[in-house]
Design a protein that fits this description.
The chain is an alpha+beta fold. The chain contains six helices and seven strands, in the order H-E-H-E-E-H-E-E-H-E-E-H-H. It binds succinic acid. GO terms for molecular function: glutathione specific gamma-glutamylcyclotransferase activity.
């Protein structure tokens, strides 16, 4: 599938008659809220886990030196914590452009911290999109992130802001925190000439 998903997403979900819908954010949507929302609540979704497996050629990297950003991969029993936003359907006109580098909207069941549930949408970049990079050792991912920068800023900023936001949410994400820790040691090594 082409990396540009704008048209795919426009044809994907019929919003007619829908006044508001829940959107689940697990990556930059948690901390970069550049869209209007009616309500926000911490929430989680089941059977998916967060992974820095998606390439970013347009936001946090370039086609020559892509960065790495998060997507979700299926893992039975896993719980991914993030932030849910109740939004008007027209907000997706902006979000589909923002998430255009490989992300498709999927329906999912959100569980709020009080145990209540609602149906919503989540952007996922699946492995059949052109920008998908897949698994690499945590230290290699951290090195790639340390080197990458794009129109939205340094890739390291994406990682560090996400890690801080996850801590603020009380979310346990060993994958993100391990890469963050490698990033810090990469910086220390380069400062000490190592
Ligand atoms: C999300 O935040 O939910 C999608 C991935 C991203 O934009 O970082």
């Amino acid at each position: 599938m082409s990396a540009n998903t704008i048209e795919h997403n426009r044809n994907r979900y019929n919003f007619s008659g829908v006044e508001s819908i829940w959107l689940f954010g697990y990556g930059s949507l948690i901390y970069k809220v550049d869209f209007p929302f009616l309500e926000q609540r911490p929430a989680s979704i089941r059977d998916w886990e967060r992974r820095f497996w998606q390439g970013s050629h347009d936001h946090r990297g370039t086609p020559e030196a892509p960065g790495r950003v998060v997507t979700l991969v299926e893992k039975p029993g896993a719980v991914c914590k993030g932030m849910a936003f109740r939004v008007s359907p027209n907000v997706f006109e902006h979000l589909d452009v923002r998430e255009k580098n490989g992300y498709l909207r999927f329906s999912t069941t959100l569980t709020f911290d009080d145990g209540r549930q609602a149906e919503g949408l989540v952007y996922i970049a699946t492995e059949d999109n052109e920008a998908f990079l897949g698994h690499a050792p945590d230290a290699d991912i951290a090195r790639q992130i340390a080197m990458a920068s794009g129109p939205s800023g340094p890739n390291a900023e994406y990682l560090l802001r996400l890690a801080d936001s996850l801590r603020a949410l009380g979310a346990d994400c060993p994958h993100t925190f391990a890469i963050e820790s490698h990033l810090h040691s990469t910086g220390e090594n380069s400062r000490s000439g190592g």
